[in-house]
């Protein structure tokens, strides 16, 4: 009990120490923050901030300098990995790691702010560049390279951007509405670019340091995803406990970059994976299984992170077991399906026939239905002998067909539901119109032939060619000769 | 592909058992010997179609050279090999294929599908309660043989 009390007291002392430290640095930051907020409010009102330093203060802050110094020290010397406290939080190295993680998040925010600054300034020169080059560091590099140049053929962007984007940028530069910047604005912009690149390299340094320590900080997580990715995940999440608190679906998309599509289809390769994409396991799965692999990786690495956050397994065996599990699952997915055995025949007459109905069947049946003509022929009038094909009761009887007394005039011209071949239908129509009383005013049965002049009967008709002047353009049964999309 | 060989019966009790135990399925018993060429061809077809027909038929082979089986050989009057006898629910089914003997099928089948057709017709007839069914095969496919009556 005494030892417990002692440990509690010790914790309290630690806390107060930390608070003292934090107060110190926080005091500076707090003041700067207040200034920052005031300046920002003022800036937002005027929307015309000229000074970079008023926007980006991180590089000058004490905290930043302290941590960077420590990191460089630690990177220089070989650390003694054996000395570790029972509680993770007591380990001074772990504290440094936590600070580094926090710092890396801050640096990223700072880079975003600087990027906004550069963008606002450079908008006057080359507005479209911000939408073509999304990544802030790439943007800063490109801006630095281009400078105030109007002709992009003189600028070599090789290595900074993928060649497709370079092409698009060059083409867009020809038609840009911008104008070259004044000298002082250009100077400020270049300064801001430099600042952004500095911040980026600092961030890299911090992450490298975290990565080298990852094996002792989070052994299980690095067993699954590798130390580089583990460091990045921790850095983006803002600490190991923050990472452990995240649900697995969030861990899956940590570090997801928005890709600039530039005209490519967005239907393909829409995988929702962030840093996990760089893990060995993910790279080695076939593309069809990548989305499932991403999900299982996120789930198991979240479990490992939780184990590490509570320091439940310093040796990392849990992580190795999870990695094995993931590997086995992915292998199982790739197995071919079991071979199909030929099915035995079904028992005869055991399955009743499925009679189908519906519109299609009705239309099919209509083709063979009894026509009106046949219906009339099947009936007979009472008292009157029916006419027959051979006369005198021989041959087929005509029934009510064609009877004078029947109150139906012949056959009504209801359009038959039977389908007629379209070419035959066209010929029938033409024949009808040729013989009927209502013909088009433009058709003529006179033919103008070169030999005889005007002829009454068309000699070409005998050949089946029809009159040369008989145009199909005005034909009643003609179809469109030329279809053009408007 | 055919993994299970057709059961070969050599004892009277086995034959009795299989006849009594096959319920609601056609039982096809082939009487023959494995040295005969026609018999082997028939066996090949039987083996290949046994799985397809398995839902409504069982196929078994009876070796005619065994002693105990001679009872059945005499009962069914089997002289030419191979001969196939059909049962349904322990009842002997007759098949009219245009030959003189309706009680059995003598000889081999031309094709797997022919055998399946015959078994299906027998099944349908038996389910309806008929004792004799008409063979669906065209006469060219039915093996012809001469029945000798007391060597005449």
TrEMBL record, chain A:
Pfam families, sorted: Nop, Prp31_C
Its BP terms in the Gene Ontology are: spliceosomal tri-snRNP complex assembly
Q: Keyword Ribonucleoprotein: yes or no?
A: yes
The protein's predominant localisation is nucleus
In residue numbers, the region (Disordered) covers: 1-36, 330-362
Q: Which residues form the Nop domain?
A: 217-335
Could you tell me the keywords of this UniProt record?
Answer: mRNA processing, mRNA splicing, Nucleus, Ribonucleoprotein, RNA-binding, Spliceosome
Q: List locations, semicolon-separated.
A: Nucleus
- Where is the sequence biased in composition, kind Pro residues? 335-349
UniProt-listed SUPFAM superfamilies: Nop domain
PROSITE patterns, per this entry? NOP (PS51358)
Q: Which SMART domains match?
A: NOSIC
Domain of life assignment: Eukaryota
Residue spans with biased composition (Basic residues)?
353-362
One GO term of the cellular component aspect?
U4 snRNP
Where do Low complexity bias regions lie?
A: 1-10
Which InterPro entries does the UniProt record give?
Answer: Nop_C, Nop_dom, Nop_dom_sf, NOSIC, Prp31, Prp31_C
Q: Which PANTHER family match?
A: PRE-MRNA SPLICING FACTOR PRP31, U4_U6 SMALL NUCLEAR RIBONUCLEOPROTEIN PRP31
The family annotation for this protein states:
Belongs to the PRP31 family.
Q: What is this protein called?
A: Nop domain-containing protein
Q: Which organism is it from?
A: Brassica carinata (Ethiopian mustard)
From TrEMBL, chain B:
One of the GO BP terms on file: mRNA splicing, via spliceosome
Write down the superkingdom of origin. Eukaryota
Signal peptide span per the entry?
A: none
- GO cellular component terms listed in the entry, alphabetical order: spliceosomal complex; U4/U6 x U5 tri-snRNP complex; U5 snRNP
Where it mainly occurs, coarsely classed, is nucleus
The record, for Pfam families, names: DIM1
Compartments it resides in: Nucleus
Quote the Gene3D superfamilies the UniProt record gives: Glutaredoxin
Functional description taken from the UniProt entry? Essential role in pre-mRNA splicing. Required in cell cycle progression for S/G(2) transition.
- State the oligomer form and interacting partners: Homodimer. Interacts with the U5-102 kDa protein subunit of the spliceosome.
What the record says about family reads:
Belongs to the DIM1 family.
- The protein's name is Thioredoxin-like protein 4B
- Which organism is the protein's source? Brassica carinata
